[in-house]
Amino acid sequence: MQTQEDLEPTVRIRELKKDRVNFVLGNVDLAFANSLRRVVMADIPTVAIDMVEIEVNTTVLPDEFIAHRLGMVPLNSSNCEEAIKYTRDCTCLAGCSYCSLMLVLNVACHDDNTMDVTSDHLDLVPFPTDPEQQNPEPGEELTQRGELFGQPVGKHEPGVPPVLICKIRKGQELKMKCTAKKGIAKEHAKWSPCSAVSFEYDPHNKLRHTTHWYEKSIKEEWPLSDNALEEEPPREDEAFDFNAKPNKFYFEVETDGSLDPQEVVMRAPVKQTAPAAPAATSGGVSIMGAASKTASKRPCEEAGSTSSDDSLAKRLEPALRRVK
Amino acid sequence: MVEDEDNEWGQLNLTNWKGLSATDPIKSVEDKWLLLPAFLKVKGLVKQHIDSFNYFVDVDIKNIVKANNKVTSDVDPRFWLKYTDINVGFPDRNEESSVDKKVTPNECRLRDTTYSAPIIVTIQYTRGKNIVQRNVNIGRLPIMLRSCKCVLTGRSEEQLARMIECPLDPGGYFVVKGTEKVILVQEQLSKNRIIVETDSAKGVVQASCTSSTHGGLKSKTYVATKKGKIYLRHNSIHEDIPIVIALKALGIQSDKEILLLTAGNTDAYKTAFSANLEDAAKLGVFTRHQALEYIGSRVKVNRRVMGPRRPAWEEALEALATIVLAHVPVKGLDFRSKAIFVATMTRRVLMAIDDEHMVDDRDYVGNKRLELAGQLLALLFEDLFKTYNSNLKNAIDKVLKKPSRTSEFDAFNTMRMQGDHLTSGFVRAISTGNWSLKRFKMERAGVTHVLSRLSFISALGMMTRISSQFEKTRKVSGPRALQPSQWGVLCPSDTPEGEACGLVKNLALMTHITTDVEEEPIIRLAFMLGVEDISLTTGTEIYGPHTFVVNVNGTIIGLTRYPTRFVAQFRKLRRARRFSEFVSIYINHHHRAVHIASDGGRICRPAIIVENGRSRVTSEHIQQLKKGTMTFDDFLKKGLVEYLDVNEENDTYIALYENDIVLTTTHLEIEPFTLLGAVAGLIPYPHHNQSPRNTYQCAMGKQAIGAIAYNQLNRIDTLLYLSVYPQQPMVKTKTIELVGYDKLPAGQNATVAVMSYSGFDRLADAPLDENGQISKKYDIIQLDGLAGVGERVDPGDVYVNKQTPSNAADNTFTGQAASVPYKNTPLTYKSPVSGNIDKVMISDTENDQTIVKVLIRQTRRPELGDKFSSRHGQKGVCGLIVNQEDMPFNDQGINPGN
Ligand SMILES: [Zn+2]
């Protein structure tokens, strides 16, 4: 009899939309599948506004409040891995075009009506270069960027409502420079490309990993999920197999638009094996020239990622590429 | 009624209110709870404070001036000055140079000034041979916000916004020197009423009565047993006076009449009393004169005026007429009603000796009176006004004493020189909270408190708070226990834990506290309804069968043989609004008495009248209420709803719900949840909680961080909290909407996932302070010496670069301003967490002192050790903050937290 390890891992995509992918992962063990879920949520780098220099803020909201809201605006981060460096890895002193993006927001209301300041008002501008500071090793990053890289997601796209930042009335003004940086969600959730990741296995609870509490009848009180159609229901007289292991994992990954769902999932196995990026204890947006957070490096403590998964990841990659 | 009430209540006039349309079918009187918003529309949430203050500035202040309206001179007998009227104006800016005199409370808060209005008196006085009439400003009175003298009253939400004021702010407090001060409601035992108590350990039975007249004089009279005999005791008499001697001195000479007035025809009482008659005979007191001589030799004589020594009986007569039981009127030495009062006290003692259940409960809410801002200010004003007048008199005497004057004497000029005795007196009392009025033997500290602006609810909760006069250290449970008579008027849940438990209470949602109503018309009305005058009766009639004594505010005025009919007629007239709706009447069958009360400080609440088993309020009325064609006042006028005080509640049979109504039912509750206060009303489903949880929640709900007021961002307070994303609760109570908690919420709707986790309960260690001296840094200071708005302040940063003259104590004038030495006294930022300059304000105070206020803002995230709680008294300390990927999730990938 063949063991699980001997089989090729499989990926079967059930649905792929602009912002979501639904797939079934097979022939991997539970720890691996779970680590994929966790990596998708917390280890895929994106760009997000990390520092805000406020010039004018005459709105009703305090500076910190607006800075926090700006940080949460999803920015297009396609090919983030190659297209931008982490500032901490960059040789520049205080940000350069290789590791930072500049967005400006300059809105004033001259109208009698209340005006909405939204992510559509955020304009991407070339990062101002300091002529005195020569970047000793110019990288390939700039050529790797797509046309929309760093733009707020869905800017001027019909049918995509922009993100509301603040409401202003006549005479109020908001003027600020925002620096976006690359980061991962372990440092702050704003860098997460996902909005929701669902994960299920063993819909019939054959493995008895959970106990369903019920009043009269389990069947009536615990409706089966749609994923139950994928698996054989247990027979009445079926004996409990305590050696059985989960084999099929049902994923749905929904992104916030900063990355395409396939990119999120494709990047994940690479991240699973690579040493994880440092995690910091606090995140958020620093403002008014506050020093950027210096995060301490620490080794990956990702649960479920054992060395044997290394080969699994390599085997999973072609499977993912195939379906693309 | 003002046209533009705030918009919330304006909604009442719309066809659709809170999803209920006027055309909706109405099942029984289903939406009768709408009477509550209608009530609050008229009265507001802190009506008790505002009503009391309004009564003071409109009525009471005039009475006080009337009682002290003349200033004469010892030097010139022809001179006199008379106050003919007094009026309190509207608040204005008390600065000579200001062009715009209009002032708003918010300006006072920011500029550290007092929100006050001028007190203008109209005087008539002699100037030479003429009589002159003039208006004079004698001082300034701090004005209660939202009172009838406040500029905010009756303004629309938009007008209030222009004045930088929050429409949801309840008012009822003062702004004195920039701080918001509340005069808490004080609970006291009722005045001018007889309270009978027993001390079983000492075997003493005593009836006591605290007399309080409008002059402010207070004294307590006891009729108590001592070694089986009854005595009258009073502070102004050295010794206890045997009761028979006291009664004889009051003009009841015959032993037979004394016996009839005290013991009546009850044999048990007669036996108990007989020893007292023997006692008087043994002491050789038989006539009134002998009794007066006996008392006179024991009266403490106040020798103020030098004069001939008066005979003892005269001293006794004066003491009995003016000091003992001062509230019972003695007209032209007619002591009859006072004698009957003392006899009644004696009879109550006899009754309690015979039956130990015939004692009063001093914790019963009906025996309590609440003292409010208006009463305390009235006392303060009377004291200050009397001092002002005596100062004025001295000043006038001083001028008149001068033998030769250059110009004709004009008292107006002397008055203007009087300074700000009243103004400073009010400001001092309210800002320190010390009411020390020697004249009225009043020495109270902690009367006022700074309004807690921790959250909107904490401010609101403070306005409904009642503090007790009982000392906190006393280990008696009686005053702390929940009284059944608190039902509907005092919140059963909202009380602190610990030493003040049960002593500090809170008003329920529909509670109203009465103000004084004139009693003469009420007495006249009682006589017209067939009450026999007490001075025409003797003991035989008073205690005869079927006779009931009629009392008005504790004083016996007469008898009636048909108490039920009398009370019914009296109520009928009240329901027709022939007199104030706050006058109460009830029958006490134990004492065979009818009590009418019109005094202030009684706690009452409205209830729907039920007649013949049917609620007087019908669906049609509620429909009209919804349409806006009827107001709460109309319900009172039409006799559909009436106010019941705690004593009158005893005469009623109140149904909780409409289907509980039986034939004997007299009233119907407007809505059961009004028995809770404003703070307890915020708890959803409180009837499913264990009762102490509601009490815990009442204490904790006030600490919740949210938004405190619409004008929050324009305030510069010592400490201000603002939650970045406050949410209105998804599960609301009616009270939440009525107090506006959904508009100024505190807290968020949280997902609660209960699961086991290898969590640990440990508080984060306190961060260590930096050691060593922090050097002062001036880099955020701008040219004006103040930190720039938006600058970051770190510990040790200077944000106001102030200099003060180094010889501030030295007042010698050198002539040269430049040579004055200055020393640096900068203000440095002390907090260990850095902040940002949010606002800088430069202004000046009333006496042209420059004032600089700097508001520094700190942003805080929830961290380990922060306290969180639900709305049910369930609090906890945050022990772990979990990353999103470590959180549990549901089938759609949704976590708690997103
Ligand atoms: Zn760089």
TrEMBL record, chain A:
The keyword Lipid metabolism does not apply. Residues 311-324 have a biased composition (Basic and acidic residues). InterPro entries: DNA-dir_RNA_pol_30-40kDasu_CS, DNA-dir_RNA_pol_insert, DNA-dir_RNA_pol_RpoA/D/Rpb3, RBP11-like, RNAP_Rpo3/Rpb3/RPAC1, RNApol_insert_sf, Rpo3/RPB3_RNA_Pol_subunit. GO terms for cellular component: RNA polymerase II, core complex. The keyword Transport does not apply. One of its GO terms (molecular function) is DNA-directed RNA polymerase activity. Pfam families: RNA_pol_A_bac, RNA_pol_L. It comes from the Eukaryota. SUPFAM superfamilies: Insert subdomain of RNA polymerase alpha subunit, RBP11-like subunits of RNA polymerase. GO terms for biological process: transcription by RNA polymerase II. Keywords: DNA-directed RNA polymerase, Nucleus, Transcription. Residues 20-279 form the DNA-directed RNA polymerase RpoA/D/Rpb3-type domain. SMART domains: RPOLD. Residues 273-324 are annotated as: Disordered. It is found in: Nucleus. Belongs to the archaeal Rpo3/eukaryotic RPB3 RNA polymerase subunit family. HAMAP family: RNApol_arch_Rpo3. This is DNA-directed RNA polymerase II subunit RPB3. The lineage of its organism: Eukaryota, Fungi, Dikarya, Basidiomycota, Agaricomycotina.
UniProtKB/TrEMBL annotation, chain B:
It is an enzyme of class 2 (transferase). GO terms for biological process: DNA-templated transcription. Keywords: DNA-directed RNA polymerase, Metal-binding, Nucleotidyltransferase, Transcription, Transferase. GO terms for molecular function: DNA binding; DNA-directed RNA polymerase activity; metal ion binding; ribonucleoside binding. InterPro entries: DNA-dir_RNA_pol_su2 (IPR015712), DNA-dir_RNAP_su2_dom (IPR007120), DNA-dir_RNAP_su2_hyb_sf (IPR037033), RNA_pol_bsu_CS (IPR007121), RNA_pol_bsu_protrusion (IPR007644), RNA_pol_Rpb2_2 (IPR007642), RNA_pol_Rpb2_2_sf (IPR037034), RNA_pol_Rpb2_3 (IPR007645). It catalyses: RNA(n) + a ribonucleoside 5'-triphosphate = RNA(n+1) + diphosphate. It comes from the Eukaryota. CDD domains: RNA_pol_B_RPB2. It holds the Pfam family RNA_pol_Rpb2_2. GO terms for cellular component: DNA-directed RNA polymerase complex. Its EC number is 2.7.7.6. Belongs to the RNA polymerase beta chain family. DNA-dependent RNA polymerase catalyzes the transcription of DNA into RNA using the four ribonucleoside triphosphates as substrates. This is DNA-directed RNA polymerase subunit beta. It comes from Agrocybe chaxingu.
